[in-house]
Design goal:
The protein is mainly alpha-helical and about 260 residues long. It has one domain (about 35-145, about 175-250). It is built from 13 helices and five strands. The chain has helices spanning about 1-10, 30-50, 55-70, 115, 120-135, 140-145, 150-160, 160-165, 170-175, 180-195, 200-215, 220-225, 230-250; strands spanning about 15-20, 25, 90, 100, 105-110. Strands 3-5-4 form a three-stranded mixed sheet. A hairpin with a 5-residue loop joins strand 1 (about 15-20) and strand 2 (about 25). The N and C termini lie far apart (about 60 Å). The structure holds zinc ion (ZN). Zinc ion (ZN) binds near residues 129, 133, 182, 185 and 226.
């Protein structure tokens, strides 16, 4: 019976999608609904956290973000992705080592991240990774996993998943991503940064820096929502040859970001 309900929900609502890397996804929330929540959550954060007043830093982060998001239409099979109507990037005056991107196209970078992602290419690898989480509907999938199947997506869409659980909208986006989401975001992010003309090898340096920073007094906040493990760097290296081909082609096209 339960199975029948699931199948019905799948057919009637959004459904059984396939992730960009071919993984089956069970999603009960429409892009529209999760985007509204992502945007609301971002506005809430902007109310609660001071924005960076360092205009050079803000410009730098925007330069890297725009270079990445401009490439989204070049990704294969964009019809299968959740592409927001536009992107907005906010830089927060916090020394936490953290960054995120929310459905609805809202990217947040904390000033503290720049101590760990210390080149434009490393920052691009973080932003590429975050943007990939949005494009691949990871938040919607994660939230769907928490919806009792009997309720189905209709209820979730009407009330909003956050409200349904009595969670603040923020909490919905503060859950850790799974290993498969992390791996997908890494690989898509690698292609995206390479398309934008950022050196994909910087992604390996970034995660090495992140690991080094995690040995300190205050481990990077980002690792609590983006769990890392030893296979991450090996997986990135396995895709590096094709990413370097994309990178070389991007340079030939004149994609040479110069963000400072
Ligand atoms: Zn991640």
């Amino acid at each position: 019976m339960r199975r029948l309900v699931l199948v019905f929900a799948c057919a009637a609502i959004v459904a059984c999608a396939t992730s960009p890397l071919g993984r089956k996804q069970f999603i009960l929330i429409s892009d529209e609904s999760i985007s509204e929540q992502g945007i609301a959550s971002f506005r809430q954060m902007q109310k609660e956290m001071p924005a960076s007043t360092d205009t050079a830093t803000v410009r730098y982060v925007q330069c890297v973000s725009n270079s990445i998001t401009r490439q989204v239409p070049r990704l294969p099979d964009t019809a299968n992705l959740s592409v927001p109507a536009g992107w907005e990037v906010g830089v927060f005056a916090s020394q936490d080592v953290n960054a995120f991107a929310l459905p609805g196209g809202k990217i947040g970078v904390f000033e503290g991240l720049l101590k760990v992602a210390n080149t434009q290419d490393q920052l691009a690898s973080v932003i590429g990774h975050e943007v990939a989480h949005v494009l691949a509907r990871h938040s919607a999938e994660r939230a769907s996993a928490n919806i009792p199947a009997q309720l189905g997506g209709a209820v979730a869409s009407i009330y909003g998943v956050g409200q349904l659980y009595g969670m603040g909208v923020n909490a919905l986006f503060l859950l850790p991503y799974s290993r498969s989401h992390e791996s997908e975001a890494d690989l898509m992010g690698l292609d995206l940064m390479a398309m934008a003309g950022f050196d994909p090898r910087a992604s390996v340096q970034l995660w090495q820096n992140m690991a080094k920073a995690s040995g300190g007094q205050k481990p990077p906040e980002m690792l609590s929502t983006h769990p890392s493990d030893a296979t991450r760097i090996a997986d990135l290296n396995n895709r590096m040859k094709s990413a370097l081909d994309i990178y070389v082609a991007a340079l030939a096209r004149g994609e040479k970001p110069n963000c400072r």
